[in-house]
Amino acid sequence: MRCTMSHSMAVRLIYWVIILFAGCLGDQSAEDAAEFQSFDDDTQIEVPFHRLPTHVKPVKYTIDLDFVSPITETRDRDESWHYAGMVTIDVEFTSLTTSIKDTILSCFDSECREKKAFSQKRIIMHADNMVKITDVQVVTKNGDSSVVPLRIVSSGRDSGKQMIVLQMESDLPSGGEMGQIIMKFRAPILRDMHGVYLSETEVEHGQNTPVVYHHIVAKFQPTFARLALPCFDEPSFKARFKLAIKHDKSIGDHPMQAHANMPSELIRQEETHTETIFHESPPMSMHMVAFVLGPFDTTLPEKTTKSGMTLRFLGVPDMQFDGEWAVSVATNVVNVFEKYIDYTLPLKKLDVVVIDELDTDNLESWGLVFLRRHNSPLAGYDLLMDGKPSIGVNLVHTVVHQWFGNLVTAAWWDDFWLIESVSAQAAIDFMQSYHPLLYTEYFVRAGLLSDTLSLDKTGRMHPLSPTKEKLSTSAGIEELFDRLTFMKSASVGEMMVNSLGSDSYKTALQCIVKRFANKSIEFDDYIKCIRTAANEGQNLKGIEKMLHSFSKQSGYPVVNVALKYPEKSHGNSLFVYVEPFYDADSKATEQHSSLSAGKFSWCLPLMVLVANRGEDDFVKQPIKCRADGSFEEIKLPKWFDIHTSFVLVQPEPDISSYYRIRYSDELYEKLMNAILERHIKIMPKARIQIIDDTVALRQSHLVSEYQRSNMFEAFHKDRDYGVKLKLLFGAQSLRETNGDVVPRWLSSSLYDYFLQPDNYYSRQTPALNHEALSRALKELVISGDKSITSMAIDASRRFLDTRGAGHGFSFLFLAEPIYAAVVKYGDKAQIDKLLQQLKKTKYHQDKIHLAEALALSENKQVLEKLVKIMNIPKYSKKIDKEKVITPRSKLTIENGRVALKAND
User: Fold this and answer.
1) Residue 109: Cβ-neighbour burial (10 angstroms; 0-12, 13-18, 19+)
2) What are the residue boundaries of the Aminopeptidase N-like N-terminal domain, all occurrences included (predicted)?
3) How far apart are CA 720 and CA 443, in angstroms?
4) Rounded to whole angstroms, what are the CA distances from 646 to 338, 718, 840?
């Protein structure tokens, strides 16, 4: 009996020893089962690769953050405040053999073996130096839910790569075992709109002191999650997220709310604070996690989609919104796109948050998107120059991004443009199709596309798909998130629609979503769906070549068009060749030689129209995509006569026109004569493209002065406002870069046309007309037209007085010429009012117009005051400097700060 009892006690003793050292039973957490170890923050460890190895894959994050008190402590201080957090990451341990080569930029077998050996016992994650890790714990989980601690023998950082390293005592598991990494940490609330940062939104109340509302915002896209918490901060590491946030009950007189990607599951009211716990998310990339804490208006509108998703529009208290319009647009997008793509989003809600301080126009996080306030539908904002078209495109882009960008994510940043090409093209197409009276195509073609082409000269800007070496740092990745990527990707998306046909393109997108929902996609995956959807006989090799042409190379091509035999009247051929567009004189003479050497090649879908003046004879013929970038010779019809016929390349352009067309002088003259004599009906977008191309090519001295004068002669009687406006912009650009004189009749004709009774201003007048008139009047003011200047100065007295009281908004589109008149010819008191208005106005576009006008001043004291204002951080981040500092302004940028030009 004694022996039996001793054996039983021994068994029990062994059992409890196993429990003590090996883990726990049931649902006991890893945190309870093993002790934390301290993290060595001072040790530097060189990680021999730039991307994380995939032998440790996150499956689920449980994130607990404590923000009690930071806003109340920091809103009146300059120093940062910190928050505390704990992250529990469920991970899967897999083999290194299939993943290590993906981690390394260039790797020979010996190097791969060495780098594989580095990862054998190590967990490598992301965390910036500012994220102070205090305690860490790693365990494996057995099938019966018990856990086994893994002993960490060393830890440290690779500060340059923003990585942390945990080295285990023995090799990591590699057969699909599950585990947990638990870390306690402390991180700062930043001020630079990255990571977790403090945002200020200022709202005016008539003549009263403006109210400033503070929010804590999490902006992790593209690589800023590592500034906020330890994580696997790469897009292919998709996981589920469970978030809990402790925060103050209120800030001032306003209740404090917390919003995140998912709806709240539980709001627990404690004695000193509130804890908001959110539902678990579907699998998503780390950079798509977002949240916001702060005061919000509780009366803003919401709608429900056909599939049951709730859309809400969140703004600060007392902010005036045309929220109904925004929510209606977003709801319609979800309804239309869910049907189009044949896939319902796995989201219960989508919140649109509007704040002042966002470093991009929008942020497309899953279930929680952000708009910068100047790109949101402020009451009355639709009367500003580029109001609802740009607002609508931004809003629709964030919604479509829920499918292409969030549900389906690029595996790495070199393929980010693939996803962006879908969401950007769809945003522009939706606005054109469902809101035609906003004339979105004008603003995109004459504005955003034209501006992007002006920037994207060969070798000056990044390609859509940079090399892996270029994307080895956060700075290189962040560079992709700009308007160039948006517009160029949209153009490539439209090229795909045109090349495949709308039905096949839709089938391809449905294939992508159904195969890769909650997964990541690479270029080869995209091409497989294109091949699946393509019709028989479609040039798939040409399509693939086109995608490589516009993604791997910076810049864009010039399509050169000339007659093979300029002196031959009949039996001629058209000579077409493509080459890169340089803007430097020294490069212009090298273009053809660089192309023939095989350095560049472009493939793009083009159509050429050949017609006779005054006759019905015409033919449209596609220009084949030559994969080797060589010349294309097109046989012209027998009836083609050099004296009476003309040629027009791409007669129906759209946003896919990411190139310039350069005609020989002979062909250009015939085309301009046909336009002048109205022998051809060319759609306004085609006329805009001709003007835009001629101006850009003339600026780079790639076409003659003869073509410039022909252009003005052909279009000066055009009655389309978009064409007139583009002509005026072109004239201004040529004056600034080439010293060309702006024809006075151009501004006068716009002004005279506006004064005709049937064109008189009303609220229904398209914003495009407003911009055309505003630019024409401004140009007349700058050129010294006495009658216009006198009218503008008279109007300024009433305009400035009423603007200060918040009235007179319906004629805000006249602000540009009025401000310019005051700066050029007004008295000191009026100019001082403009400087005060620059600091006071809450409208982003108004700030731009004021700063742009003041930058034209000849008075050094005025310029010094302007420079001082623009360098104050509070105002600096709210003024787009590139729009203010133009060639004819008196300002420049030195070391990131605004300064007077040296000769001023």
Assistant:
1) exposed
2) 119-285
3) 14
4) 45, 20, 55
Q: Within a 13 Å sphere around the CA of 330, how many CA atoms are in the beta-carbon half?
A: 34
* Mean per-residue pLDDT over the chain, rounded: 82
From 212, 191, 193, 196, select the one nearest 372 (Cα to Cα): 193
- Closest by Cα among 509, 502, 863, 449 to 658: 449
- Distance (Å, rounded) from C-alpha 215 to C-alpha 489? 32
**β-strand partners of 618:** 611
**Do 576 and 659 contact (CB within 8 A), yes or no?**
no
Collapsing DSSP states into helix, strand and coil, what is residue 587? helix
CA distance 876 to 68: 30
DSSP label at 443?
A: I
What HEC string does 789-840 produce? HHHHHHHHHHHHHHHHCCCCHHHHHHHHHHHHHHHHHCCHHHHHHHHHHHHH
Element (H, E) at 746: helix 744-755
| Regions in the chain scoring below 70 on pLDDT | 1-34, 70-80, 97-112, 144, 204-208, 319-322, 374-387, 458, 568-571, 583-600, 614-617, 625-631, 679, 740-772, 798-813, 842-844, 874-883, 887-888, 903-904
CA 230 remoteness from chain centre = 26
How far is the C-alpha of 58 from the C-alpha of 677, rounded, in Å?
67
Residue 600 CA, chain-centre distance (Å), reads: 27
Query: Distance between CA 821 and CA 660 in Å, rounded?
Result: 36
Kindly compute the dihedral angle of the four CA atoms of residues 123, 124, 130, 134, in this order, to the nearest 10 degrees: 0
Over residues 233-258, the pLDDT tens digits come to: 999 999 999 999 999 998 877 889 99
